[in-house]
Amino acid sequence: MDILITGGTMFASRYTADYFVRKGHEVYVLNRGSRQQTDGVHLICCDRHELGDTLKGRRFDAVLDITAYDAADVRDLHEALDDFGTYIFISSSAVYPETLPQPFNEDMTVGPNVIWGEYGTKKIAAERYITENIHGHYIIRPPYLYGPMNNLYRESFVFECAENDRPFFVPKDGRMPLQFFHIDDMCRLMELLLEKQPEERLYNVGNTDIVDIETWVRLCYKVIGKEPDIRYVDGTVPQRSYFPFYDYGYILDVTRQNTLLDKTVDLYEGLCSSYRWYDENRELVKGYPRRNYIGFIDENLI
Q1: The pTM of the whole model exceeds 0.85
Q2: Among 5, 90, 105, 283, which residue has the fewest nearby CB atoms (within 10 Å)?
Q3: What is the pLDDT, as a whole number, of residue 290?
């Protein structure tokens, strides 16, 4: 297939581009050309808001919109496209209000979430534009993505602590639930959507097995053969000052996803793949910006 992928240079979009290149497709990436491109892609060097006639006269079998955050992002790309088949949009679990009963399922009404704020409401607006204007679309709502090429300072922060034999500080009793989804699983799901064209248009995605914070930390340490010295931090200390996730545990119902994906990547094996990539690409892990968790810990917790 001829596939257009927005972005293509960082984490989810970069891995997606690499995945579909390896599968033998003709992959076109749309970005400003300011970072290194994935081997084997065709670069369309342009800002998605200034496309003009750049995409006119082209037909794509699929558009994988990995990087859109709001309705304007989607609208400007959609209006610039000439002809395409399936449109897949990566949304977010942030569209579910924190007040809804859990696990969240696709039939629930979306709305503002006080934890995610504007990020969630902008994703809702993007989803609304798609459902009202784009035929042949699919919307994917992931929890925390992880895996190779993850430039966010999440599992890499725990790996760094483990490598340096640091004690690890977890919030409260360490029991807050975390749901993950490996980036390779997300690509496999997109591939299945393109192949099978199911009637359902909206999919929560994620591992069926939920872990808590402490279990996740212990798995990260296990990846490099270490056992963590766990320290518990009471709720008076702002969680995001020393830990890479918000004080908000939630679970997605992924029953619909599981009708397509027969299994997902085991979390420990997925973390091993994360570490292999991180070990060779440490300089790429920056975050937005990279938080100084260790500095805060040394000054305030140890």
Answers
A1: yes
A2: 283
A3: 57
